[in-house]
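Pilot study result, target chain (456 residues):
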Amino acid sequence: MQKLYRRIPYLLTIAILATIAVQLYSGYIDFQKNSSNFKREMQQSLDVALDNYFIKVSEQKNITLIVPTDSLERPSNLSIEKKVMGAISMKGEPKNISVFKDDKIHESLSSTANVKMINISINKDSINFKKLKVFLDNELDRKEYTIPYTLNYYKQDTLFATSHRGAIFSKHLSTKGKSTYLKKGEKIEMLFPNAVKVILKKSLINIILSFLLVIIILFALFYLLYIVKQQKQLSEIKNDLISNISHEFKTPIAIIGTALESIRYFNDSNDLEKTNRYLDYSNQQLGKLEKMVNQLMDTAFLDTNDWNLNRQTINIKEWIAPIVENYKLNSEKEIVMEVSKVIQNQTFIDPFHLGNALGCLLDNAIRYGGNQIEILVENTQEFTLAVSDNGNSLNKEQRAKVFDKFYRVPHGNLHEVKGYGVGLYHVKKIAEKHHGMAKVFFKDNKTTFIISIPNE
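Predicted structure:
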């Protein structure tokens, strides 16, 4: 079982790392996919913008003529005039005139006999970047992309023109226009930033779901580890409690058994004094057994809400003096009590339960503490009981656990100190029932337990 407990944290660690790795890899694949989609959409946007630009330019610059079909030779002289914002005149042999015969047109143009079509396209040598940017911006806005970009126009691998939208950047992705309208040697390149924000926005839902899944899995695994740890601690506490109770109960039972055996078999003279002495020993041990049984029963009782305090106004010195004197008489250690900062001599407490709590603190100091025990009583805004000893037997981790139920400071498999870890738990619960608190701290080489109760 111990081997299994030791393996569980390693198995959970492997499961956690594997879960994180799978989610990170899935997120990376999704990011790469969205990055490729983003780049493809930029490519499509540039191509659509180029096509729209050239189509618009073509609509503005194309001229269609109908000439007689008997003139199959290319015209050697052509003059065209168009009155749009002035006069445009072109004379001479045209270089960009396509001459072809079209029988369908000939048939459809019933009012015109013997015709053929000539398509004249007038093109500029360079692209108008202002107009191209308008088409590109419109396409990007249609796809709801507001990213900056740089547009470069190359002729024969030489940068001919460039234009920017937004801030200039250094790290970027790039794509090239693939429009069929581009002339040979022309190239349009679009540079855009490594648009992590835009790409992550596309993956936002998947990222959130993956993140929530990782959190849920991690929470479940850590909670499982916590439960396993708690079960392990409970198992250890149970075994330790059974062992401690066995040792605690065996001693008085053995003494009682020895006393009764002595009375029966070793008292032939019917010595009354010896008999009474053995009976006194038996009564003392029975009292210890009763006290231990009551403590165990009270432990279960304190965890319920079925008990209430019997609070009353008492005189502090008259209440505390008999308790301290009883422990002085039954202990070889030096016990000193000091009453200071007392605004009034009375306080409102449950004398029985708080007396038991003080007794637990004194009993704990006698068992675990040093040779000098100090009791400090204060009654200001709070009624405070502090029990200090010069035995530095608790480390920081142990001080954080001493008020836990059934917790005992580990001493290996030794049982030289009696008890089974419910005394300080009683102290904490009784203090809380008084709406106060119990705490422990180490200062000036002294371990101090404090019960503080607000005066009502």
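One observation from the pilot: Residues 170 and 193 are 8 Å apart (CA to CA). A full batch analysis is planned for the follow-on phase.
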